[in-house]
Sequence to fold (153 residues):
Amino acid sequence: PLESFSIFRVAHNDQIAQEVVSAHIRSLMASHLTDVLSSDQHTVKPWFAGKLDFSPPVVDLKDQEFPLVGGRLDYVENRPIAALAYLSGQHVINLFVWPSMASADAGESFVGRQGYNALPWTRDHTNFWAVSDLNATELRRFVQLVQDRSRGG
Fold:
């Protein structure tokens, strides 16, 4: 039974990985990176109010060279989710956020798809997926900063 759960979890994460990478690619192809264009977390976070049934954490990382570009609505796992757009030089990072049904936090593990890196984790009943063409080291640094800044809300 535990083995079949592990196989299901891997297959489920593989499906989500494909969904978030596809959403990342669509945001770049369609020039639809943001619905709300702002580098101010106090503008982006309230924009989601009334559009989602949760409030995504929005962190300001411009001092760490990952400026916030804005946010948009996206759709993953058959539900609307928050997508936060950040930059690292010329590289776009999409941070996808939505509530988790998991009762325990889960650490990150890299997934590669179509030339993009995806790094998922779960914390405080929230799923996070960071997706970019950044190298693994820089994407991990971004994720660590997000984790440090979003603790406690």
